[in-house]
Amino acid sequence: MIDGVITGHEPAFDFPRRAQLPEHPYLLATTPRSGSSWFGHLLWETGCLGAPLEYLNFTPGSPLGHMRDDPPAQRRHWEHTITTRTAPNGVFGIKAFPLQFEELGTLNPQLLNGAVRFLLARGPHTRVVHLVRRDRTAHAISYARASLSGRWRAAQEGEGQTEPPFSRLAVDNAMKIIDRLENTWAAMFRDLRIEPLRLVYEDVRGDPEGALKAVADYLSVRIDPEARVAVPEISRQKQEGARLWAEAYAAGEEGATPSPSA
After folding, report:
1. Which of 70, 141, 145, 177 is 20 to 30 A distant from 238 in Cα terms?
2. 249 lies in a domain?
Protein backbone atom coordinates (compact mmCIF):
# COMPACT_ATOMS: atom_id res chain seq x y z
CA MET A 1 0.00 0.00 0.00
CA ILE A 2 1.02 3.67 -0.24
CA ASP A 3 1.32 5.57 3.03
CA GLY A 4 -1.25 8.33 3.39
CA VAL A 5 -2.97 7.58 0.08
CA ILE A 6 -6.25 5.73 -0.35
CA THR A 7 -5.64 3.50 -3.35
CA GLY A 8 -8.87 1.52 -3.54
CA HIS A 9 -7.12 -1.76 -2.73
CA GLU A 10 -8.04 -1.49 0.94
CA PRO A 11 -10.30 -4.27 2.39
CA ALA A 12 -12.88 -1.64 3.34
CA PHE A 13 -13.83 -1.43 -0.34
CA ASP A 14 -14.23 -5.16 -0.91
CA PHE A 15 -17.47 -6.68 -2.15
CA PRO A 16 -18.95 -9.50 -0.03
CA ARG A 17 -16.73 -12.56 -0.39
CA ARG A 18 -17.92 -15.08 -2.98
CA ALA A 19 -17.20 -18.81 -3.00
CA GLN A 20 -17.78 -19.28 -6.72
CA LEU A 21 -15.76 -17.91 -9.61
CA PRO A 22 -17.09 -14.81 -11.40
CA GLU A 23 -19.50 -15.49 -14.23
CA HIS A 24 -18.58 -12.30 -16.11
CA PRO A 25 -14.83 -11.53 -15.91
CA TYR A 26 -13.42 -8.83 -18.19
CA LEU A 27 -10.23 -6.93 -18.87
CA LEU A 28 -10.10 -3.14 -19.03
CA ALA A 29 -7.25 -2.87 -21.54
CA THR A 30 -5.71 0.57 -21.80
CA THR A 31 -2.54 2.65 -21.55
CA PRO A 32 -1.20 5.05 -18.90
CA ARG A 33 -2.79 8.53 -18.82
CA SER A 34 -5.86 7.41 -20.76
CA GLY A 35 -8.36 8.38 -18.04
CA SER A 36 -8.62 4.73 -17.04
CA SER A 37 -8.43 5.30 -13.27
CA TRP A 38 -11.38 7.70 -13.43
CA PHE A 39 -13.33 5.39 -15.74
CA GLY A 40 -12.51 2.30 -13.69
CA HIS A 41 -13.91 3.96 -10.58
CA LEU A 42 -16.99 5.03 -12.54
CA LEU A 43 -17.58 1.38 -13.47
CA TRP A 44 -16.92 0.28 -9.91
CA GLU A 45 -19.34 2.80 -8.41
CA THR A 46 -22.29 1.13 -10.16
CA GLY A 47 -21.82 -1.92 -7.94
CA CYS A 48 -22.60 -4.01 -11.03
CA LEU A 49 -19.51 -3.71 -13.25
CA GLY A 50 -16.77 -5.02 -11.00
CA ALA A 51 -13.97 -2.96 -9.49
CA PRO A 52 -11.33 -2.79 -12.25
CA LEU A 53 -8.08 -1.81 -10.58
CA GLU A 54 -4.51 -2.86 -11.42
CA TYR A 55 -4.56 -6.13 -9.49
CA LEU A 56 -1.51 -7.53 -11.33
CA ASN A 57 0.70 -4.46 -11.12
CA PHE A 58 3.64 -5.19 -8.81
CA THR A 59 5.94 -2.41 -10.00
CA PRO A 60 7.85 -0.41 -7.37
CA GLY A 61 5.80 2.50 -6.04
CA SER A 62 2.48 0.89 -6.92
CA PRO A 63 -0.01 -0.12 -4.20
CA LEU A 64 1.10 -3.74 -4.62
CA GLY A 65 4.79 -3.02 -5.15
CA HIS A 66 5.73 -4.61 -1.83
CA MET A 67 4.93 -8.02 -3.40
CA ARG A 68 7.27 -7.55 -6.35
CA ASP A 69 9.80 -10.18 -5.24
CA ASP A 70 7.32 -12.56 -3.62
CA PRO A 71 5.56 -14.76 -6.23
CA PRO A 72 3.66 -16.81 -3.61
CA ALA A 73 2.23 -13.59 -2.13
CA GLN A 74 1.28 -12.46 -5.63
CA ARG A 75 -0.61 -15.72 -6.19
CA ARG A 76 -2.42 -15.44 -2.84
CA HIS A 77 -3.31 -11.84 -3.61
CA TRP A 78 -4.77 -12.77 -7.01
CA GLU A 79 -6.83 -15.62 -5.61
CA HIS A 80 -8.09 -13.42 -2.77
CA THR A 81 -8.91 -10.58 -5.17
CA ILE A 82 -11.10 -12.79 -7.32
CA THR A 83 -13.21 -13.69 -4.27
CA THR A 84 -13.48 -10.17 -2.84
CA ARG A 85 -13.60 -7.90 -5.90
CA THR A 86 -16.32 -9.73 -7.81
CA ALA A 87 -19.61 -7.83 -7.69
CA PRO A 88 -22.65 -9.69 -6.30
CA ASN A 89 -23.94 -10.14 -9.86
CA GLY A 90 -20.79 -12.07 -10.85
CA VAL A 91 -18.87 -9.34 -12.68
CA PHE A 92 -15.11 -9.15 -12.11
CA GLY A 93 -12.97 -6.51 -13.81
CA ILE A 94 -9.24 -5.87 -13.87
CA LYS A 95 -7.42 -2.94 -15.45
CA ALA A 96 -4.05 -3.51 -17.10
CA PHE A 97 -1.42 -1.97 -19.35
CA PRO A 98 0.71 -4.11 -21.70
CA LEU A 99 3.91 -3.32 -19.80
CA GLN A 100 2.39 -4.79 -16.63
CA PHE A 101 1.70 -8.09 -18.37
CA GLU A 102 5.21 -8.06 -19.84
CA GLU A 103 6.77 -7.47 -16.42
CA LEU A 104 4.59 -10.11 -14.76
CA GLY A 105 5.77 -12.58 -17.40
CA THR A 106 9.28 -12.06 -15.99
CA LEU A 107 8.35 -11.91 -12.31
CA ASN A 108 5.77 -14.70 -12.19
CA PRO A 109 5.05 -16.41 -15.52
CA GLN A 110 2.85 -19.02 -13.84
CA LEU A 111 0.55 -16.32 -12.46
CA LEU A 112 0.47 -14.49 -15.79
CA ASN A 113 -0.46 -17.66 -17.67
CA GLY A 114 -3.21 -18.45 -15.17
CA ALA A 115 -4.61 -14.91 -15.27
CA VAL A 116 -4.56 -14.80 -19.08
CA ARG A 117 -6.37 -18.14 -19.29
CA PHE A 118 -8.94 -16.93 -16.76
CA LEU A 119 -9.56 -13.62 -18.52
CA LEU A 120 -8.89 -14.19 -22.20
CA ALA A 121 -9.21 -17.88 -23.02
CA ARG A 122 -12.98 -17.98 -22.83
CA GLY A 123 -13.75 -18.29 -26.52
CA PRO A 124 -16.79 -16.27 -27.58
CA HIS A 125 -17.36 -15.29 -23.95
CA THR A 126 -14.05 -13.38 -23.67
CA ARG A 127 -14.74 -9.76 -22.81
CA VAL A 128 -12.29 -6.87 -23.16
CA VAL A 129 -13.13 -3.18 -22.80
CA HIS A 130 -10.50 -1.18 -24.70
CA LEU A 131 -10.22 2.45 -23.57
CA VAL A 132 -8.28 4.86 -25.78
CA ARG A 133 -7.77 8.63 -26.09
CA ARG A 134 -8.63 10.40 -29.32
CA ASP A 135 -6.35 13.39 -28.68
CA ARG A 136 -2.93 11.78 -29.14
CA THR A 137 -1.03 14.98 -28.38
CA ALA A 138 -2.87 15.57 -25.10
CA HIS A 139 -2.30 11.93 -24.18
CA ALA A 140 1.43 12.16 -24.89
CA ILE A 141 1.76 15.45 -23.01
CA SER A 142 0.06 13.92 -19.98
CA TYR A 143 2.38 10.91 -20.12
CA ALA A 144 5.51 13.02 -20.58
CA ARG A 145 4.70 15.42 -17.73
CA ALA A 146 3.91 12.58 -15.33
CA SER A 147 7.11 10.74 -16.30
CA LEU A 148 9.26 13.82 -15.73
CA SER A 149 7.60 14.93 -12.49
CA GLY A 150 6.82 11.52 -10.97
CA ARG A 151 3.31 12.78 -10.20
CA TRP A 152 0.84 10.26 -11.62
CA ARG A 153 -2.19 11.07 -9.46
CA ALA A 154 -3.75 14.17 -7.91
CA ALA A 155 -2.87 12.94 -4.41
CA GLN A 156 0.81 13.41 -5.30
CA GLU A 157 0.33 17.08 -6.13
CA GLY A 158 0.98 19.76 -3.54
CA GLU A 159 1.71 23.41 -3.00
CA GLY A 160 5.08 24.69 -4.15
CA GLN A 161 5.76 21.96 -6.69
CA THR A 162 7.42 23.16 -9.85
CA GLU A 163 6.22 22.37 -13.35
CA PRO A 164 8.71 20.24 -15.29
CA PRO A 165 10.25 22.27 -18.14
CA PHE A 166 8.54 21.72 -21.47
CA SER A 167 10.26 19.18 -23.72
CA ARG A 168 9.10 18.38 -27.23
CA LEU A 169 11.40 15.37 -27.23
CA ALA A 170 9.69 14.01 -24.11
CA VAL A 171 6.27 14.41 -25.75
CA ASP A 172 7.42 12.75 -28.97
CA ASN A 173 8.98 9.88 -27.00
CA ALA A 174 5.78 9.47 -25.00
CA MET A 175 3.75 9.32 -28.21
CA LYS A 176 5.99 6.53 -29.50
CA ILE A 177 5.57 4.60 -26.24
CA ILE A 178 1.80 4.95 -26.35
CA ASP A 179 1.72 3.84 -29.98
CA ARG A 180 3.80 0.79 -29.12
CA LEU A 181 1.47 -0.12 -26.25
CA GLU A 182 -1.59 0.25 -28.45
CA ASN A 183 0.05 -1.89 -31.12
CA THR A 184 0.68 -4.54 -28.47
CA TRP A 185 -3.00 -4.62 -27.57
CA ALA A 186 -3.98 -4.74 -31.24
CA ALA A 187 -1.70 -7.72 -31.83
CA MET A 188 -3.10 -9.54 -28.82
CA PHE A 189 -6.70 -8.93 -29.91
CA ARG A 190 -5.84 -10.17 -33.38
CA ASP A 191 -3.97 -13.26 -32.20
CA LEU A 192 -6.70 -14.26 -29.73
CA ARG A 193 -9.53 -13.27 -32.09
CA ILE A 194 -11.00 -10.91 -29.52
CA GLU A 195 -13.55 -8.29 -30.49
CA PRO A 196 -13.19 -5.71 -27.72
CA LEU A 197 -15.66 -3.02 -26.82
CA ARG A 198 -13.73 0.10 -27.86
CA LEU A 199 -14.49 3.26 -25.91
CA VAL A 200 -12.93 6.69 -26.40
CA TYR A 201 -12.08 8.68 -23.27
CA GLU A 202 -13.33 11.97 -24.67
CA ASP A 203 -16.68 10.38 -25.54
CA VAL A 204 -16.95 8.75 -22.12
CA ARG A 205 -16.37 12.15 -20.48
CA GLY A 206 -19.18 13.59 -22.57
CA ASP A 207 -21.65 10.77 -21.89
CA PRO A 208 -20.58 8.64 -18.91
CA GLU A 209 -24.01 7.05 -18.49
CA GLY A 210 -23.99 5.97 -22.12
CA ALA A 211 -20.56 4.39 -21.65
CA LEU A 212 -21.70 2.52 -18.54
CA LYS A 213 -24.71 1.16 -20.40
CA ALA A 214 -22.49 0.09 -23.29
CA VAL A 215 -20.27 -1.88 -20.92
CA ALA A 216 -23.26 -3.46 -19.16
CA ASP A 217 -24.78 -4.50 -22.49
CA TYR A 218 -21.43 -5.89 -23.64
CA LEU A 219 -21.19 -7.99 -20.46
CA SER A 220 -24.88 -9.01 -20.70
CA VAL A 221 -25.72 -7.63 -17.27
CA ARG A 222 -28.06 -4.96 -15.96
CA ILE A 223 -27.12 -1.91 -13.88
CA ASP A 224 -29.25 -1.79 -10.74
CA PRO A 225 -29.38 1.76 -9.30
CA GLU A 226 -29.83 0.21 -5.84
CA ALA A 227 -26.49 -1.59 -6.11
CA ARG A 228 -24.31 1.55 -6.11
CA VAL A 229 -21.32 1.46 -3.77
CA ALA A 230 -19.01 4.07 -2.28
CA VAL A 231 -15.57 4.16 -3.93
CA PRO A 232 -12.49 6.33 -3.34
CA GLU A 233 -12.73 9.72 -4.98
CA ILE A 234 -10.63 10.24 -8.10
CA SER A 235 -9.65 13.89 -8.40
CA ARG A 236 -8.48 15.22 -11.73
CA GLN A 237 -4.94 16.55 -11.73
CA LYS A 238 -4.34 20.24 -12.29
CA GLN A 239 -4.61 21.16 -15.95
CA GLU A 240 -2.72 24.46 -16.16
CA GLY A 241 0.64 22.82 -16.79
CA ALA A 242 -0.83 20.59 -19.49
CA ARG A 243 -2.34 23.65 -21.17
CA LEU A 244 1.02 25.43 -21.22
CA TRP A 245 2.73 22.37 -22.65
CA ALA A 246 0.05 22.05 -25.35
CA GLU A 247 0.60 25.69 -26.35
CA ALA A 248 4.36 25.22 -26.48
CA TYR A 249 4.02 22.03 -28.54
CA ALA A 250 1.63 23.68 -31.00
CA ALA A 251 4.01 26.64 -31.33
CA GLY A 252 6.85 24.34 -32.33
CA GLU A 253 8.99 24.99 -29.29
CA GLU A 254 11.74 22.49 -28.45
CA GLY A 255 12.18 23.06 -24.71
CA ALA A 256 14.54 21.27 -22.35
CA THR A 257 16.19 17.91 -22.78
CA PRO A 258 14.24 15.35 -20.73
CA SER A 259 15.74 13.18 -18.04
CA PRO A 260 16.40 9.50 -18.90
CA SER A 261 13.26 8.46 -16.96
CA ALA A 262 11.07 9.96 -19.71
Report:
1. 177
2. no
